[in-house]
Amino acid sequence: MIEKTIELAKEIRDEPTQLHVIAGILTATDKFIDEEYAKKVKEWIKMTKVIRLFEQEKEEAVKEAEKQKAIEIAKNLLDVLPIHEIAKRTRLTVAEVADLAKEMGK
Which superkingdom heads the taxonomic lineage of this protein's source (predicted)? Predict the structure, then answer.
């Protein structure tokens, strides 16, 4: 019964709520839950956190790569378009594009 309840809780889409519910189940059933199963659930929770951290790092890397691509595009457009237009097209700020122009002596 406890195992089914935890498996059902794993289906909760909102992760903070999911972890809160599972932690509550473990706390409430601490005295009669199989210790081995409790360890297994705690390990699953830890893995969820590791995966979440990995996903955050991956997202940050993608954002950084997109930013670097925008910077390269902006550098290539400095001779062709005004700074405000480059900022609009690359989604960089006007200040960022102006700094690039200064760095490149343009």
Answer: Bacteria
